[in-house]
Structure to design on (140 residues):
């Protein structure tokens, strides 16, 4: 009987661990910026190492984000600047976590979820919307 119970516990643990729809949290990863999009027309006005833009005026920026205990730290290695802020869970659903964020006094919303690509692979994605701009990050 103990073996059956142990087998059931291991099976439940295994199946839970294999759930591909697990929603990532902001604290689960270090984040690297892929692009900054204009809220006006959606064009990438800045891009990171793995991002791109069709605008001649777009700038390459190395921006990283870390989140822990309600505190955000964004580090711009290109311009040697650090920005700080806060976050708190606003709502969650089976596919994403939405956060209220404040960075350097500016309020916005952020969402963390899994992006599914054409080949069906998935990767964690983090997007901060600060009104005029949306900053897109991928897991580092």
């Amino acid at each position: 009987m103990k073996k059956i119970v142990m087998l059931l516990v291991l099976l439940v643990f295994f199946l839970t661990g294999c759930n591909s729809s697990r929603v990532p949290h902001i604290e689960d990863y270090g984040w690297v910026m892929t692009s900054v999009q204009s809220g006006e027309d959606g064009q990438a006005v800045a891009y990171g190492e793995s991002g791109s833009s069709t605008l001649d005026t777009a700038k390459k920026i190395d921006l990283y984000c870390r989140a822990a205990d309600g505190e955000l730290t964004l580090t711009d290695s290109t311009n040697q600047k650090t920005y700080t802020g806060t976050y708190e869970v606003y709502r969650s659903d089976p596919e994403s976590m939405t956060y209220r964020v404040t960075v350097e006094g500016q309020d916005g919303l952020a969402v963390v979820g899994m992006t599914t690509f054409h080949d069906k692979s998935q990767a964690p994605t983090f997007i901060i919307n600060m009104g005029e701009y949306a900053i897109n990050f991928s897991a580092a």
